[in-house]
Write a structure and sequence with these properties.
The chain is of the alpha/beta class. 43% of the residues lie in helices and 17% in strands. The protein is built from 17 helices and 15 strands. It has a seven-stranded parallel β-sheet with strand order 3-2-1-4-5-6-7, sandwiched between helices. A six-stranded parallel β-sheet has the order 12-9-8-13-14-15, sandwiched between helices. It has a two-stranded antiparallel sheet with strand order 10-11. β5, α7 and β6 form a beta-alpha-beta unit. The longest helix has 19 residues.
Length: 379
């Protein structure tokens, strides 16, 4: 191992979140493209998931589950963070480049658990990068800004985050599209009732249901939309999971939706595919409606016009940057059972305009996601 080429990727929750898998896989590809050889360590919450999906790293670090259990019962949050991530922290020396790869890990109240790894990197004289991230502007209090300022670099994946960080006086931030835009697709079998380029892909997450403003309104909107597609168009429908974690499983929710219909024009995609295979499925759709940001990224990067059900800054920012922000619908916009269907009718009307816009913009945008200038500087 060449100690000058050691990369530690941390903040990864496991590859059953296929958005997280897409970030990890694309980041590893960027690192490995630049010679000489790099030794890559992945700190993960679920090593077995990453092994199942063939994540190509040299070494894994896992949480100490004894302290995870103690943390869950503790009234003092964060007390055991250093103990939980001790195996990760112990890998850091002055020759390490640490990449916080969680994407939106700094959008949540528990962001401080990643701070302890970052602080160890600074203490050891290592390099520390917040990688391909979005950060909710309302979360940027003085404590977070002080922490962010001490990163050697921050690659912001959309302009809302970038502009907010710059407005707070941070000079270590650069715009760089989400690295998952560059993810390659991998062919997989499609169901018999999946009509290539004439199917609407729909992804729905328990997360948006938990955050809905009126109980039941998201499922009502999705059900109404599917009924509209079947009754008023010649398109079929594919329900596509993208996160299948036990505590946050799209497939379980989509299976519930699937059970509402007896039509042979709707199919449920397997929950066993990789991020690259889900991208292939999405690339064969005609249109999409997606609640997971990385499902929309798979669509955008494949030139597929879609609606993003946006619950956070990342959906709004990425949509805005690509010029398709009018087709990001916030949870507060679900005012009745037809809100989604109304926007979908507009999507059909604007399909050619949006498709042309994506085709025009996406090559440059994807190339920007491959921008590894920051890694080059820190090698």
């Amino acid at each position: 191992m060449n100690e000058n080429k050691k990369f530690l990727l941390y903040g990864h929750g496991g590859s059953y979140n296929h958005g997280a898998e897409a970030i990890i896989r694309s980041t590893i590809e960027i690192i490995k493209k630049k010679p000489p050889y790099s030794y890559i360590i992945l700190s993960t919450h679920f090593k077995e998931q990453d092994i199942e999906f063939g994540i190509d790293v040299d070494e894994y670090c896992e949480r100490d589950m004894y302290y995870v259990v103690l943390d869950k019962s503790s009234q003092e949050k964060g007390k055991y963070d250093k103990d939980i991530y001790k195996s990760t922290i112990d890998k850091i020396d002055k020759n390490t480049v640490c990449l916080s790869v969680g994407g939106d890990n700094y959008c949540y109240d528990n962001w401080r658990k990643w701070k302890v790894i970052h602080e160890r990197a600074i203490e050891a004289g290592a390099k520390s990068i917040l990688w391909s991230c979005s950060i909710e502007p309302s979360m940027m209090d003085n404590e977070m800004i002080d922490t962010l300022r001490t990163h050697h670099a921050i690659t912001a994946r959309e302009s809302i985050t970038y502009n907010s960080l710059k407005a707070h006086g941070l000079n270590n931030v650069v715009p760089c599209s989400d690295v998952a835009f560059a993810l390659n697709s991998m062919q997989t079998a499609l169901p018999n009732n999946f009509i290539e380029h004439n199917t609407v892909g729909i992804n729905l997450s328990p997360l948006v249901v938990r955050r809905e403003k009126k109980q039941g309104i998201i499922l009502e909107n999705v059900t109404t939309l599917i009924e509209y597609i079947i009754e008023n168009t010649d398109m079929n429908v594919a329900l596509i999971p993208h996160v299948v974690m036990s505590m946050d499983n799209d497939y379980t929710l989509l299976n519930k939706v699937y059970g509402k219909f007896s039509s042979n024009r709707i199919c449920l995609i397997s929950d066993k595919l990789s991020a690259s295979q889900y991208k292939y499925v999405i690339s064969k759709c005609r249109l999409g409606v997606f609640s997971r940001t990385h499902a929309t990224i798979a669509a955008y990067s494949s030139g597929i016009p879609c609606i993003a059900i946006g619950y956070s800054v990342k959906a709004a920012g990425i949509g805005h940057d690509l010029g398709v922000g009018d087709y990001v619908i916030g949870l507060d916009k679900f005012v009745n059972g037809f809100s989604l269907c109304t926007m979908f009718r507009s999507l059909i009307k604007d399909e050619k305009i949006l498709s042309d816009k994506l085709e025009k913009n996406i090559e440059t945008y994807v190339e920007n996601s491959r921008n590894c200038e920051i890694i080059d500087v820190l090698r």
